[in-house]
Amino acid sequence: MSVFNYLVTYPNFPPTANNINYPPYKPATYGAEMADKTLCGDHVQYAGIHYDTHNLYGWFESEVTAGALREATGLREWALSRSTYVGSGRWVAHWLGDNTSRYAQP
User: Running DSSP on this structure, what letter comes out for residue 95?
Assistant: First the structure.
């Protein structure tokens, strides 16, 4: 089963109407629902509800990647990640993406 099929057939979709799935603000998303292309915010996981742990994935992966690089090379590790969280700088550098500035140069 593909990830797309899993998300489409997820039993908690459409999301339960609450402040987690429908907060008073709505950031830019791909679809009409905040849960489009991801789990519902109130989905319960090992580390807590998805709303609180969504951005922790990169943090968990950062520590493991740094340890694996150090073990494999025997040298100081260096890794670059787009998915970071507070404290990730201990293990990886944060890439801000393909940002551009559009302002007049003096």
Answer: P
Query: Dihedral sign, CA of 96, 81, 38, 25?
Result: negative
Rounded to an integer, what distance in angstroms lies between the CA atom of residue 45 and that of residue 57? 12
Domain boundaries, the chain: 1-48, 56-94
CB 77 within 8 A of CB 91: yes
pTM higher than 0.90: no
- How confident is the chain (106 residues) per 10-residue block, as mean pLDDT? 45 71 80 77 82 81 92 93 85 81 66
Rounded CA-CA distance 33/27 in Å is 10
